[in-house]
Amino acid sequence: MKHTFKNFQKLSAMILASGLMIACSEDPVPNPTPNPGPDEDSRWITVAAARMGDNPGDGNGGTLIFSISSEEAKDPTVSIAPFDNGFIVPSNRTARLQSSEDGNTIFNISYAGDTGGQYTKYTVGGGQTFTQEGTGVSIAPYVGSAPRWIKLFDGDQTGAAVYVNTEAQFDDNGTPDDASDDTYLRHEATMGVVTLNLVNSSIIEFQESSLALSIEEEAMGYYISRIDMPTLNAAGDKLYIGARLSKVDPATGESDREGEILPAKTIVLDYPSLLNPTVITSGVGHGNTNGYRSINSFEFNGSVYQANQGDPNGSHILKIDANNQYDDSYVFSLDDALGVEDAYILAWRPAANGKAVVAYRDASSQEGAAGAQGFFALVDLNARTAQKITDIPYEPDFYLFQYQGFVVDGTDIYLTQAPVGKNGNIYVVDTETGEVTLGAELINVDGSHYIGVF
Length: 454
Known about the structure:
Signal peptide: 1-23
Strand content: 35-45%
Shape: globular
Keywords: Signal
Distance between the termini: 27 Å
Protein name: Lipoprotein
Oligomer: single chain
């Protein structure tokens, strides 16, 4: 019989000697003495679901989460319905979620709306039970109500949020009544970075800095227009921040979307002081390094590996070495590794063995209800190889642009697969063998989709 989690206050979601204590859909009964967490061989897997707002797949109707044990996540007879009975995460739009390394805590900073910029954390209790720990803190005064933030990989101690404000600068050649003759000079880009103590919910440091490109690049109208995904290096003394470049026509100061795509860039600044920013440039990849909703760069074996997006030659995985410069001898093209064209890395996550699961689209992707069709691949950072994961079903409505979270448990990586408005499943990829396990069923509703596990 398929087991279905229904709506009650406490779900034990545990593995006991007698088997799974999961309520059947016909007769949900809460466990009066729930265990405090999974057994020692398990961990919580929190599934995140994004409800439709105005259009299928936009995720603007809010985010709901629901947790089960890792054993249940691997069990295809288990069925969960977060859209019906999940915990509603405070956020005006799609929440920006993070989880502790052991899965016992969920961190959230609300995105936009009246609560935008509010940091809260929750103890995972199974099912829809998420208990807020202490009081929250707002980072909106520092980085606005729609912050881009990430949890640094420092033992769940620190989060970092960033923003950039830009303003075009002109000289004063025009008359007081007609500024049309003013000459465009450059864009002033001001970066703000705040670090947050995740343990006691307090602000650690905040700094603003001016970001400049080379004189030649700025003369052509380029400037840093968006930043995201701060990553701590292995030494713990530098923070890397991904960047997107935009361009104007310097003759008019108007947006120019037809210009050359410049080599990929990353901002490097001192940590924990957040001072002395510099901009480094890749000799391998082009386009952007800020990602979108998911973590875009990870420290592995002393270096930081980073995906780029919008590269005319398809996404690469780039490498920044301990000297805080790009290693241009490391060339890992996803197009070449997969034998595809126009690969675009949407989200990815490596295990400790250097093998990673990558969510991507490419030139073969069909147009679905919300955008281009997505796929998953297993990549090896050391061997620079990749292969499409064929044991996961794909269809045009399988939309991964907003995908956020993978769970790494040893060499296993958990992910969600569910097309927009259709049921799907959790899948578990053994990165050592490539074996894929079909897991719990994910119940969907019209126009909505799943954005990962935490």
